[in-house]
Specification:
Blueprint lengths: L1 H16 L1 H5 L1 H16 L4 H9 L1 H17 L1 H15 L1 H19 L1 H14 L4 H18 L8 H9 L6 H24 L18 H24 L1 H7 L5 H7 L8 H8 L6 H14 L8 H10 L3 H25 L1
Helix pairs in contact: 1-3, 3-12, 4-12, 5-8, 5-12, 6-7, 7-8, 7-9, 7-11, 8-9, 8-17, 9-11, 9-17, 9-18, 10-15, 12-17, 14-16, 15-16, 16-18
């Protein structure tokens, strides 16, 4: 357990304090994941096989979406710019936060994140606004994708464990998630500003090379493999100290999903024996915290990697936004 706590501290703090770690995050998390699995005694052939297989679908989706974006870059840019000019950039971005959040439950969080990257590359945003918009949109995508079992792995696992139907999650967390997604869209109007000059419209970037697309897909593969090792490596710690706690405590403790795979945490914590209120608290804690730091969710990983957003840049905005949302939901869930 001491070894796992040390690894957890490394994962939480080294990406913000050591430049080499920040610039090689995938490799660092992979090393930490393997270390956690070895220290906990969870490393075996089954886990290795799982870590090799789990990233395949996500990697293929990123690869295919990258190729489609490359081939259709010009018409997609024109459509985004046309809609942005017709609505004004600020209103367009707010609508995109809402649409991507709600649509991610059908098109998957991965595809929504890739569309987000395209939008950011095309529209004329200052660097600070670019980061803020990306973080807000990834919070929205992470929340919205959980409304159906096809949106992201967490929702698939929960529906399977609860032996529930397709609409289970929509009924359980929809009343909280949908208003939150809409609110995030409205918030983006106050935190995001576009450049004034129309000369900056358009991405002004050449299409990605095939090498860049393949390298990004390979990084995603390594990242997801690392999260698989991390999630399973920390299972003994979760079982010892997390399972069985009250919903109020679980809600806040699940902030660890900012650095651990929330699907694995959901698999460890959710049980058919739990009542709906407990499951709701667990899921909302996991989903909100997943937007706070880059490793917390696949959309974060994709967007930060493609837009060169550092761990520190993400955390400066993502942590306070996430904590504010968690505080609001805590009051809604446990006070009223």
């Amino acid at each position: 357990m001491i070894g796992l706590f040390i690894i957890l501290i490394f994962v939480l703090f080294l990406p913000f304090s050591v430049k080499k770690v920040e610039h090689n995050l995938e490799i660092f998390l992979f090393i930490m994941g393997v270390a956690a699995a070895l220290v906990s005694g969870m490393m075996n052939l089954h886990l290795i096989g799982k870590a090799l297989v789990d990233p395949i679908n996500i990697t293929l989706a990123v690869l295919i979406a990258g190729l489609i974006t490359k081939w259709a870059q010009n018409p997609l840019e024109k459509a985004i710019l046309g809609a942005s000019k017709a609505l004004t950039p600020r209103i367009f971005l707010a609508i995109m936060v809402i649409v991507l959040g709600l649509a991610s439950s059908i098109i998957t969080a991965i595809i929504a994140a890739i569309i987000l990257v395209l939008i950011v590359n095309v529209l004329p945003l200052e660097r600070k606004s670019e980061i803020r918009f990306t973080v807000i949109a990834c919070f929205s995508i992470g929340l919205g994708a959980a409304l159906t079992p096809i949106g992201e792995p967490l929702s698939t696992i929960v529906v399977s464990k609860m032996d529930a139907d397709f609409g289970y999650l929509m009924g359980l967390i929809g009343p909280e998630v949908i208003p939150a997604v809409i609110l995030l869209g409205l918030i983006s109007m106050f935190f995001v500003q576009s450049k004034e000059s129309s000369d900056t419209l358009g991405s002004n970037q050449p299409a990605e090379s095939y090498k860049e697309i393949i390298i990004r897909a390979a990084k995603i593969y390594l990242f997801v493999m690392a999260l698989t090792f991390l999630g399973h490596g920390f299972e003994p710690l979760i079982t010892e100290y997390v399972i069985g706690l009250s919903p109020e405590l679980l809600y806040w403790i699940n902030m660890i999903s900012a650095v651990l795979d929330n699907a694995t945490l959901a698999a460890a914590e959710v049980s058919p024996a739990m009542d709906g209120e407990t499951v709701r608290a667990i899921l909302l804690g996991l989903l909100i915290a997943g937007g706070m730091l880059i490793p917390g969710n696949i959309p974060n990983i994709i967007a930060a990697g493609k837009l060169n957003i550092t761990s520190k840049e993400w955390a400066v905005f993502g942590l306070p936004v996430g904590l504010a949302i968690m505080a609001v939901f805590f009051v809604i869930l446990f006070v009223f």
